[in-house]
Amino acid sequence: MTDQPTTAQLDADARLLVAPAEGTPDIEDTPGCLQETIAALRAGTGPIAIDAERAHGFRYSQRAYLIQLRRTGAGTHLIDPIAFDDTPALAELGAAISNTEWIIHAASQDLPCLAEIGMTPLHLFDTELAARLLNYPRVALGTMLTELLGVRLLKEHSAADWSTRPLPAEWLTYAALDVELLVELRDRLADQLVAAGKDAWAAEEFAALAAGAGAPIERRTDPWRRTSGIHRVRTRRGLAYVAELWQIRDEIARDTDRAPSRILPDVAIAELASAERPDRSTLHQIPGFQRRQARRYLPEWLAGLQHVATLRDAELPPMHIPSVGPPQARMWASKDPVAAKRLTRVREVLGAVAQQYELPMENLLTPDHVRRLAWSPPAPLTEESVDAALAQLGAREWQRRLTVPGLTEALGP
């Protein structure tokens, strides 16, 4: 896709969609309503448009607080998953629609919270990923609806706290509109994928997403090392303060189901850990610890400081942990100049292939796969060994078919 109109031009010509064509449905929060929804969806035809709203930035959990579904002949349904906690009702809904194609925009964001309540698809169509394969420069749902269907959505509730109860009526309208035209958008993108000869590629990508829908999320090693501002902490004991306060905050956040940043911001942890000998006085001088939520847990913060102060040097965390993969690309020139030149050649080859097939480079081949391959190429170096290495990393068959020949040459001396 080239010479795309600007967002302003698209918005100026688009029709503002302010309400669903059939009106905003009531939220469904009783077993009787859910059974009626299951029956209606079973009686409908074609794929099912699905979306989920979370409370990111407000709650600790990433659970779904609203589920939107729409199918031709069945209409739109808004389900409150909180009303069905500790019941198998939503798993029954998931089973009823699992063999139908799901249409989701940015499926990787919603599939984990849907799987958590027993809803996983066997087949899906990701409208965001389809747009990326078609090389659209802007792939947000609102932008795609404007560009392909000529309608514009208001996004004023996209960052709302969806754990709020009762949900305001205008929020429900916003939520219903998110699935109002997903079926039509899917059909338009599917036609374009066929015309571009990319439908088989998309099918592989969608199958991989569906296959991994229920997989557990891998937890990072030492997640506290991602605390914003930690670069200011220069000592191992300082890192121990970060780790201790991060863990205390995480336990409080999990117990209260509040986003960690709403209890204590990262910057406050990093600032305290940067002090030479942090104590109660230091804590009182840092604005983040004076917030109402943080003050409630003053005894916990002080206990954490006391605990770290008593740790022996051997108990302190190392300044750095060994990387399980290649170093950051900017460090390659000093660590391994040969690998750095190899990475440059590989990127040039992939850039040419991406341009030839009108694909974003990151969709042609995952950047992490590229770095791992360039840092440690297989030996002996053949097209077969490169193909096997990429397959083990998780590259799709279509990606390997397009890239292996050029990569094999670029990885050579």
UniProtKB/TrEMBL annotation:
Domain HRDC: residue ranges: 235-315
Coiled-coil segments on the chain, per record: none
EC nos: 3.1.13.5
Protein name, entry field: Putative ribonuclease D
Pfam families, sorted: DNA_pol_A_exo1 (PF01612), DNA_pol_A_exoN (PF18305), HRDC (PF00570)
Originating species: Microlunatus phosphovorus (strain ATCC 700054 / DSM 10555 / JCM 9379 / NBRC 101784 / NCIMB 13414 / VKM Ac-1990 / NM-1)
Residue stretches spanning the membrane: none
Enzyme class, first EC level, given as a word: hydrolase
Swiss-Prot/TrEMBL GO biological process terms: nucleobase-containing compound metabolic process
Entry keywords, A to Z: Hydrolase
Domain of life: Bacteria
An example molecular function term from Gene Ontology annotations: ribonuclease D activity
Lineage: Bacteria, Bacillati, Actinomycetota, Actinomycetes, Propionibacteriales
